Amino acid sequence: MSIIQLTKRQEEISRIVQENQPITGEKIADLLHVTRAALRSDLVVLTMLGLLDAKPKVGYFYIGLENQRNEYYHFKDMRVSDIMGIPLTSHQGESVYEVIVKIFMEDAGCAFILDDDGFLCGVVSRKDLLKASIGGGDLSKIPIGMIMTRVPNIATVLESDVVFEATEKLVQRQVDSLPVIRLAENGKARVVGKFSKTIITKLFLELKE
Ligand code: ADP
């Protein structure tokens, strides 16, 4: 699937390059009976899209739609809902100890914490748990709600968010994962997924394949 809409002129240029490659800009202009200047912006668009490759002093080559840049365009369209993972959630009243066990059992990097009504109220990362552990208290008596990072200081994403923008948020906020939320009418959030650096890393590898 391609989202690229070429103009008639751009399609014509692609065809000419495909049939005559390598071909100089001047030659293309000759074949189309236009000036070199008139072609410039179309050639820029086509090389930026990855349809053509320009080699200095040689000319233009045809790369085509099946090339790797096309996958980049597919990636560009991806939404959080396409790749989000299953979130690990805990109730705010659960103990730090219980959450540590859960994180081990489920091989998760963090837990999203829910209030009595099941709405998102916080996040705990592994470092939060380590910090609590070296604090010296009885971990089975400390509620996770006491050590979590709380709403409204939680960075979240929506299922409909573009993967690129969600990734930007991960990087800017310097966290490993973001809860994917659905907003309820009361302004609170239900957690429906997880968007993490691990998920992005896996996607990156998939693109290579
Ligand atoms: P760690 O540093 O433990 O490897 P993170 O970088 O994800 O993991 O977490 C750093 C800090 O940011 C922790 O205190 C954690 O509670 C908090 N945190 C984690 N995820 C979020 C988030 N989505 N929004 C706001 N704060 C977060």
List the helices and strands and how they pair.
Layout: H1 8-20, H2 25-32, H3 36-48, E1 52-55, E2 59-62, H4 68-77, H5 80-83, E3 89-91, H6 96-105, E4 110-114, E5 120-125, H7 126-134, E6 149-150, E7 157-158, H8 163-173, E8 177-183, E9 189-196, H9 197-208
Parallel strand pairs: 3-4, 7-8
Antiparallel strand pairs: 1-2, 4-5, 5-6, 8-9
Helix pairs in contact: 1-3, 2-3
The structure holds adenosine-5'-diphosphate.
Alpha carbon gyration radius: 25 Å
Runs in which pLDDT lies below 50 for 5 or more consecutive residues are none
Instruction: Find the structural class using helix and strand composition.
Output: alpha/beta
Number of strands: 9
- Report the bound ligands by name, code or SMILES: adenosine-5'-diphosphate
N-to-C CA distance: 17 Å
Helix content: 40-55%
Oligomer: single chain
Q: CATH superfamily assignment of the largest domain?
A: CBS-domain
- The total count of helices amounts to 9
CATH architecture level-2 label of the largest domain: Roll
Describe the structure in your own words:
The mean pLDDT is 90. The chain has helices at 8-20, 25-32, 36-48, 68-77, 80-83, 96-105, 126-134, 163-173, 197-208; strands spanning 52-55, 59-62, 89-91, 110-114, 120-125, 149-150, 157-158, 177-183, 189-196. α1 (8-20) packs across α3 (36-48) and α2 packs across α3. A hairpin with a 5-residue loop joins β4 (110-114) and β5 (120-125). It has 209 residues and is an alpha/beta fold. A four-stranded mixed sheet has the order 3-4-5-6. The protein has a three-stranded mixed sheet with strand order 7-8-9. It has a two-stranded antiparallel ribbon with strand order 1-2. It is elongated, with a radius of gyration of 25 Å. It has two domains: 8-71, Arc Repressor Mutant, subunit A; 80-207, CBS-domain, CATH 3.10.580. The structure holds adenosine-5'-diphosphate. The site of adenosine-5'-diphosphate has 16 residues, from β5, α7 and β8. Residues 78-139, 148-209 form the CBS domain. This is Transcriptional repressor CcpN. InterPro entries: CBS_dom, CBS_dom_sf, Diverse_CBS-Domain, HTH_11, UCP026546_HTH-CBS, WH-like_DNA-bd_sf, WH_DNA-bd_sf. Keywords: CBS domain.
